[in-house]
Amino acid sequence: MILLNGRGFILQKCENCNAAFSWSEIYKSLWAGYKPIKCNECGTGHKITISGRIIFVSLTTLSMVIFGLFLSPFRSILVTIGIALFILIIGSLLTPFFVTYKKFS
Question: Domain limits of the chain?
Fold first, then answer.
């Protein structure tokens, strides 16, 4: 979840002990098939929510496909594919700030 507090973006925290998850933990979890995250402090497990999955797909694959199929002003397929891949990379790098996780037992 993204929160602004004057210092920039803040990643989601553990619902049990309030320890922040690292960007790399969340990023690896997303690309490993939504693997649950375990808190390093208290060991509580967290799963990605359905809305978090939708956000992940929207920022990565969906935005790339929409650009490539409908919004590309370029006649060159290579330029279109290059920009679509750039959108995929930027979207994937931003997703850890927007996805949400929920504690599970």
Answer: 3-104
State how far Cα 74 lies from the chain centre: 28
Predicted confidence (pLDDT) per residue in 2-22, tens digit: 544 444 577 889 999 999 899
Residue 96 gets the label, from left (phi > 0), alpha (psi -120 to 50) or beta, of: alpha
State how far the Cα of 25 lies from the Cα of 6, in Å rounded to an integer.
24
Given a contact cutoff of 8 angstroms between Cβ atoms, the answer to whether 14 and 102 are in contact is no
Round to whole Å and give the CA distance between 22 and 57.
20
Low-confidence ranges of the chain (pLDDT < 50): 1, 3-7
